[in-house]
Amino acid sequence: MTEATVQPSPQRKQPSAAELLRQLDRREISAVELMTKVAERMQSANRRLNALVAENWTRSLEQAGRADALRRSGSALPLLGLPVTVKDSIETCDYPCTGGSHARAHFIPERDAPSVARLRAAGAIIVGKTNVPEYSSSYETDNLLFGRTRHPHDPERTAGGSSGGEGALLGADASIVGLGLDGGGSIRVPSHYCGTVGIRPTVGRVPDTGSWPRTRETGYRDLMCIGPMARYVEDLILLLPVISGPDGMDPYAVPAPLGDPHGVDVRSLRIGFYDHDGLARVSPQTAAAVERAAALLAERGARVERVTPPDLSEATALFLMAAGADGGDRMRHDLAPAGGKHNAQLQALLDAFGSSLHLTDFFDLQERLFDFRRRYRAFAHDYDILICPVTTGPAPRHGQPPWGIAPGDYDRYEGFNHSHALSLAGMPVVAVPAGNQDGLPIGVQVIARPYEEHIALVAALAVEADLRNAL
After folding, report:
1. Residue 196: its pLDDT value, please?
2. Do 149 and 165 touch, CB atoms closer than 8 A?
3. What SS3 string covers 388-419?
4. I need a surface site. Which of 41, 340, 346, 430 has the fewest CB within 10 A?
């Protein structure tokens, strides 16, 4: 393995959620003081990012006051007083859940999504909702309701999508932790673009009840996952157990035990890395970031080797076929109340849908999807961790495709093939910064076997720590 020459991403300036909770427990800061600081940072950042689309700071400060009272009375709630933002496609009973669409411009859910309810039950305070592309249908966060979200380090570039509002606020050190939703990369791509971290869990680890679109009723069925987003890997470790477990509604959610990260020794891990997917070429800096992450783990004693994955070149085509298996009928039904008020990219997607698949063709598609998953999982079986790119390069300019993709191919999505492949394979993945290109963050995907999120988190934690120590 040759030494990668890419430099690490900028160091975070604000404490982690875990450290802030320790400060709260030691009475070094009150929840009200913390909320006041978060409100100031978030309002200041949002003036340039346009990432926060709903908030109620008066209510959040009142809830922080109650959290302080509970702590004084001896409460041991694990997230007591912690401010959390939530993607605007996950339902919250006290904020709108628009999904970025005029179809739901005034919709306020009657109840929280289970993941949100579990955060609240642990003492967290939901401080607001973050921007998304309409119907979570794009890798650029823009819609006719709230407008475009901008990159935290360059306003001319995208923060990604569809959890772009979350990524932008985290990348600006404004939000502390957030909740995202990932189908084809919607947690991983914004994390990669904005220099933050996020985890797409194994399907079934976290119920996706209360998300929109209703993924279990669409071609995405077992592709969508709710997961935490943060600035530090330790905060993913903090939040994931809180939101995990079946809810009695999501048929894919299972009571699988969550492994203990403290029981993982990096020296015992067998790690493979690759940067080719057979479809889209990645930038040299992206390839170097993958190699750098692998090299850092090798320095810690892991057994590391460059590997060749099975053919991944059809991942994007299969992903889009699954999404459009009904010819777009579900999307048109859900978006009908918008009365045709859509931004140009979503309208182009609606116009591009063909007819729904014949039943025989649908079953053929299912067979191809299952075969893709089988082949990748068979390959991954021999490794504790795999490392690969998130996309082909850093955040592109608004309205432009990823690095290396011709501008006229903006709507073809091949630049996200690495992310699509892991969605189809059903693997748990952590996105973590591993370098930069032209001053913009470059992340990598740290992949574990299904239901072994704890191993991916430990490997990502090691990469993050070594990169931070290098500054």
Report:
1. 97
2. yes
3. EECCCCCCCECCCCCCCCCHHHCCCCHHHHHH
4. 340
H or E element, residue 136:
none
In this prediction, residue 469 carries a pLDDT of 63
Q: Does the structure show a pLDDT above 50 at 308?
A: yes
What whole-number distance in Å separates Cα of residue 186 and Cα of residue 179? 11
Assess contact for 456 and 385: CB atoms under 8 A: yes
> Which residues contact residue 409 at a Cβ distance below 8 angstroms, ignoring those fewer than 6 apart?
401
For residue 212, give the DSSP letter: S
> Is-contact 104 145, C-beta < 8 A?
no
Q: Are 382 and 271 in contact (CB under 8 A)?
A: no
User: Which two three-digit tokens encode residue 391?
Assistant: 């996309």
The pLDDT of residue 408 is 85
Which tokens hold the place of 90? 């996950």
Distance between first and last Cα of the chain = 23
Please report the pLDDT score of residue 9 as a whole number.
45
Neighbours of 182 (CB within 10 A): 31
E runs forming strands in 299-450: 303-306, 385-389, 429-437, 440-447
pLDDT tops 70 at residue 66: yes
CA atoms within 13 A of residue 399's CA, in its CB half-sphere: 4
Is residue 198 within 8 A of residue 230, CB to CB? The reply is yes
Q: What digits encode the pLDDT tens for the residues 77-122?
A: 999 999 999 999 999 999 999 999 999 999 999 999 999 999 999 9
Look at residue 229 and give its three-state secondary structure.
strand
Q: How many CB atoms lie within 10 A of CB 304?
A: 24
Give the tens place of pLDDT for each residue, 283-292: 999 999 999 9
189-231 pLDDT, tens digit each: 999 999 999 999 999 999 999 999 976 555 456 789 999 999 9
Q: Is 99 left (phi over 0), alpha (psi -120 to 50) or beta?
A: left
- The structure tokens listed for 8 are 């690490």
Spatial separation of the C-alpha atoms in residues 231 and 223, rounded to whole Å? 24
C-beta neighbour count of 460 within 10 angstroms: 30
Residue with tokens 């300036």: 13
Q: What are the helix and strand counts (H, E) for the chain? A: 14, 11
Determine which helix (DSSP H) or strand (DSSP E) holds 63, and give its type and residue range.
helix 57-72
